[in-house]
C-alpha cells in the first residue's frame, strides 16, 4: 500500500540553466499552456526560455534555503511526517510533476517495494486541470506502459472540507495573535489562471471563491480574494493580487495580513512574490504594516489535516495504525 504526494516541481538549483530546464518541461505541458504547440513552441524556445530563466533564477536565489528549494523541502518533510503518522502499513513518498524526483521513478520504486495499491495525492486543495489533472495524467501515463498495474486512487480536491478550513483558521488565528499589529484585512491570494479556463469548465475559480468565503465565515471577518502570478498576455482571473495590495491604502486599509490558502507549502510564488514583492507594493502605496502568513507547510495543523484526508481515502484498503 502506498501514498504518493505529488507537487508541482521546482528547479534543482537557483541558476538560469536549471530554471531553463524546469521551465522548458513545465511550460511545454499542454494542460498548462493551452496554445497549439506549433504556435507556442517557437515563442517558448525563442523568447520565454531566453528571457525568463535569468529573472526567475534571481528570484529563486532570494528564497533558496540550506535544504534547497522551499517547495521541495516542505514537500519532502510532509511526506516524512506523514509516514511516521500513518505507520508501517502504508509507504508514503513524494514526487514532482516536473523535474525531480519524478513520478515515474517514485511509482516504480513503490511497486518494487510491493505496493499493489497506490493513492495519488496531488497537493492542491482546489482542483485545476493545470495542476491536479496533469499530476494524475503523468501517473496514468506511467501505468499505461505496464502489463501488471497496481490499483490506483486519487485524492479529491478538499477546498471546502471542514478540516481544511479549520486548519487554515487555526494557523491564521495563531499567526495574527503573534503580530505586533491588528490587521484591518486578511487578503487570500490564490495562484491565477487564464480567465478562459473558467468558461471552459475548470472549477478552479469556484473552488478558490468557496475556500475564501468559508474561511471568512470561520474567522468571522472579511477575507478578500485575489489572484497572483499572472503569466503571458491573456486575460487572467481577477482581481490581481499586486493591484489589490496597491489599492488597499487608498481605501483606508493600512494594515494587512496576506495568506495563500491554495498553496499547500511555501514556494517561490508565496515567499518572493507575496512576502517580498507584495510587501513592497503595499508599503510603497502607503500601507503601514504588512504580514505574510506562512502556508500550512509541515506544521502540526497541516500534517493532521492530510493524515485525516489520506486515511479517509485509504478506507477499505488499510486501517492506519
Ligand atoms: C497552486 C496552483 C497553481 C496553479 C493553478 C498554477 C498555474 C499556472 N502557473 C503557471 C506558470 C508558472 N508557475 C510557476 C511557479 C509555480 N506555480 C505553482 C502553482 C500553481 N501554478 C507553484 C507552487 C509554483 C512554484 C514553484 C517553485 O519552484 O517554488 C512558474 C515558475 C516560476 C516563474 O518563472 O515565475 C511559472 C512560469 C501557469 C502558466 C499556470 C496556468 C496556466
Ligand atoms: Fe504556477
Ligand atoms: Fe511568480
UniProtKB/TrEMBL annotation:
The keyword Cytoplasm applies. It comes from the Bacteria. The keyword Iron applies. Pathway: Porphyrin-containing compound metabolism; protoheme biosynthesis; protoheme from protoporphyrin-IX: step 1/1. GO terms for biological process: heme biosynthetic process. SUPFAM superfamilies: Chelatase. GO terms for cellular component: cytoplasm. It is found in: Cytoplasm. CDD domains: Ferrochelatase_C (cd00419), Ferrochelatase_N (cd03411). InterPro entries: Ferrochelatase (IPR001015), Ferrochelatase_AS (IPR019772), Ferrochelatase_C (IPR033644), Ferrochelatase_N (IPR033659). PROSITE patterns: FERROCHELATASE. Its EC number is 4.98.1.1. Keywords: Cytoplasm, Heme biosynthesis, Iron, Lyase, Metal-binding, Porphyrin biosynthesis. It catalyses: heme b + 2 H(+) = protoporphyrin IX + Fe(2+); Fe-coproporphyrin III + 2 H(+) = coproporphyrin III + Fe(2+). Its main location: cytoplasm. One of its GO terms (molecular function) is metal ion binding. Fe(2+) binds at residues 191, 269. Belongs to the ferrochelatase family. HAMAP family: Ferrochelatase (MF_00323). Catalyzes the ferrous insertion into protoporphyrin IX. This is Ferrochelatase. The gene is hemH.
Amino acid at each position: 500500500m502506498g501514498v504518493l504526494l505529488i507537487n508541482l516541481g521546482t528547479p534543482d538549483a537557483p541558476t538560469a540553466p536549471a530554471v531553463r530546464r524546469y521551465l522548458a518541461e513545465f511550460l511545454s505541458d499542454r494542460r498548462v499552456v493551452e496554445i497549439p504547440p506549433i504556435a507556442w513552441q517557437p515563442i517558448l524556445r525563442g523568447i520565454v526560455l531566453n528571457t525568463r530563466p535569468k529573472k526567475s533564477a534571481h528570484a529563486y536565489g532570494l528564497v533558496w534555503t540550506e535544504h534547497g528549494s522551499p517547495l521541495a523541502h516542505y514537500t519532502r518533510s510532509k511526506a516524512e511526517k506523514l509516514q511516521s503518522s500513518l505507520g508501517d502499513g502504508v509507504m508514503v513518498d513524494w514526487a514532482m510533476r516536473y523535474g525531480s524526483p519524478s513520478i515515474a521513478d517514485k511509482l516504480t520504486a513503490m511497486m518494487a517495494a510491493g505496493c499493489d495499491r497506490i493513492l495519488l495525492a496531488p497537493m492542491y486543495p482546489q482542483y485545476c486541470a493545470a495542476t491536479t489533472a496533469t499530476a494524475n495524467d503523468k501517473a496514468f501515463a506511467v501505468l499505461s506502459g505496464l502489463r501488471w498495474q497496481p490499483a490506483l486512487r486519487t485524492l479529491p480536491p478538499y477546498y471546502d472540507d471542514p478540516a481544511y478550513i479549520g486548519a487554515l483558521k487555526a494557523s491564521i488565528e495563531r499567526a495574527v495573535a503573534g503580530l505586533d499589529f491588528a490587521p484591518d484585512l486578511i487578503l487570500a491570494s490564490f495562484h491565477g489562471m487564464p480567465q478562459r479556463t473558467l468558461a471552459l469548465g475548470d472549477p478552479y475559480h469556484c473552488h478558490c471563491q468557496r475556500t475564501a468565503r468559508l474561511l471568512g465565515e470561520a474567522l468571522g471577518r472579511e477575507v478578500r480574494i485575489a489572484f497572483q502570478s499572472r503569466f503571458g498576455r491573456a486575460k487572467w482571473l481577477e482581481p490581481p493580487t499586486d493591484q489589490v495590495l496597491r489599492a488597499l491604502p487608498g481605501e483606508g486599509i493600512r494594515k494587512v495580513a496576506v495568506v495563500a490558502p491554495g498553496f499547500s507549502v511555501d514556494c517561490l510564488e508565496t515567499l518572493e512574490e507575496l512576502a517580498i514583492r507584495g510587501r513592497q507594493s503595499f508599503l510603497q502605496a502607503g500601507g503601514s504594516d504588512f504580514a505574510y502568513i506562512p502556508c500550512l507547510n509541515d506544521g502540526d495543523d497541516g500534517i493532521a489535516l492530510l493524515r485525516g484526508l489520506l486515511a479517509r481515502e485509504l478506507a477499505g484498503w488499510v486501517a492506519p495504525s
